[in-house]
Design brief:
CATH architecture: Beta Barrel
Number of domains: 1
Distance between the termini: 38 Å
Structural class: mainly beta
Mean pLDDT: 85
CATH topology: Porin
Amino acid sequence: MLLIITNANVSAQEELRTESNNFKHSFGVHAGAITGLGFSYRYFPEKWGFQVTGVPVFSSDNFFSSAGLSFMYKITSHHKVDLFTYLGAHHIHERDNHNYTPFPPLENPNVFTNKILNTGFGAGINIHIWEVLDLSFQAGYGVYNIINSPASNITGEIGFYYRF
């Protein structure tokens, strides 16, 4: 009888340990030409997941925003690392009001606006530094500045995440 109770207790503890290690959400900071720049949220319940990354930066004369969306597929998972692929898009919007007074003075100040759209795909690895901290490295191929003058090149991304 004692053996059955002990085995049931061990099984319950293993289930709790497995459930606690099944992190689906992550929040952190990320920098990438294809996946975005700024604060990042990841939802990775099983094999498929997504990542949303972005940041707006305001000042009296300037505006900068970065917004990225990526879809990910987990190839394999291990207690120390995860290997995955990704497909992403990153939109950048910049506006700069040149508030200077040229000679002779002009009626309207110069306003510089730039919109960039990057997209690409690649592979990545999440390294589980501690149970709840991840360091993510990604590399792939991207098409930059699709809106104005497209160019393609290799890309690299990096992120640091708290998993919960």
